[in-house]
């Protein structure tokens, strides 16, 4: 456990909470989804470490155990935070695994910072290429009406919103695919999020267009997605990202919800390890 200073402010720094297994293995950086924290990868870290990898998780600014500044919740700034982490730990030949919202930082990273430190990437249940549906993005899986309803519900009552959200996060067609304790664990992580950060990041992952970023991803890529994902649907996100990346593999987790790394940990981990071994 350590902290990385992602931004030096005039009066206060922005620090990221980092968990690093250490060791000499190739680094794998796990970038969590909204509105969770690095602890959401509890089922992945031991498997990756046992396979010989150095595993790094961190809490995005505004979430988990990291600083909760007033601003800085655009993807440009969030990607600067990721780069600050890679530089502070001097990581090279790294694999970036972006889950859900974290897939946005992975896509934007190559536009901002290139591929010098990165060996490969994974888009897991990830939001690229562009969530918000519109005239120029008819296949976007998120309507403006649905986005407005989510923001209003979170603004009105955080507890009620997160309770409903975690049920959807782990369900396929209304059937919960994890234990109630696993859902409660995720709910606890949600409640660590700063409300202003959660609202700002909701807007960021819903409205940021990554279609121009994806062509800059020139390293091998794995797209890992559940076919029962009702939060970030496969057809509107993962399948389109795969089609945009000629150098990518697609692994579809059958009957898996958005929280597929928890509901299908063995298959998720095996797909990840198989890709890493290439």
Automatic annotation (TrEMBL):
UniProt-recorded Gene Ontology molecular function terms: hydrolase activity
Species the sequence originates in: Pseudarthrobacter quantipunctorum
Protein's UniProt name: Alpha/beta hydrolase
Alphabetical keyword list: Hydrolase, Oxidoreductase, Peroxidase
Domain of life: Bacteria
Residues covered by the AB hydrolase-1 domain: 27-259
Organism taxonomic ancestry: Bacteria, Bacillati, Actinomycetota, Actinomycetes, Micrococcales
């Amino acid at each position: 456990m350590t902290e990385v200073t992602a931004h030096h402010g005039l009066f206060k720094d922005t620090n990221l909470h980092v968990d690093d297994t250490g060791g000499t293995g190739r680094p794998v950086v796990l970038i969590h989804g909204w509105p969770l924290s690095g602890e959401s990868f509890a089922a992945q870290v031991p498997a990756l470490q046992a396979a010989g990898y150095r595993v790094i998780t961190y809490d995005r600014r505004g979430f988990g155990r990291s600083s909760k500044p007033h601003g800085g919740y655009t993807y440009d700034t969030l990607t600067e935070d990721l780069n600050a982490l890679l530089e502070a730990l001097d990581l090279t030949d790294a694999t970036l695994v972006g889950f859900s919202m974290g897939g946005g930082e992975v896509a934007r990273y190559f536009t901002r910072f290139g591929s010098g430190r990165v060996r490969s990437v994974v888009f897991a249940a990830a939001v690229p290429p562009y969530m918000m549906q519109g005239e120029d993005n008819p296949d976007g899986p998120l309507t403006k009406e649905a986005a407005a309803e989510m923001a209003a519900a979170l603004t009105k009552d955080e507890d009620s919103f997160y309770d409903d959200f975690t049920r959807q996060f782990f369900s396929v067609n209304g059937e919960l695919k994890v234990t109630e304790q696993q859902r409660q664990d995720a709910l606890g992580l949600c409640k660590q999020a700063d409300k202003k950060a959660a609202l700002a990041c909701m807007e960021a992952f819903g409205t940021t267009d990554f279609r121009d970023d994806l062509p800059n991803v020139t390293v091998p890529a794995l797209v890992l997605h559940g076919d029962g994902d009702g939060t970030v649907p496969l057809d509107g996100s993962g399948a389109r990202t795969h089609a945009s990346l000629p150098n990518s593999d697609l692994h579809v987790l059958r009957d898996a919800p958005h929280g597929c790394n928890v509901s299908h940990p063995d298959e998720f981990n095996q797909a990840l390890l198989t890709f890493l071994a290439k």
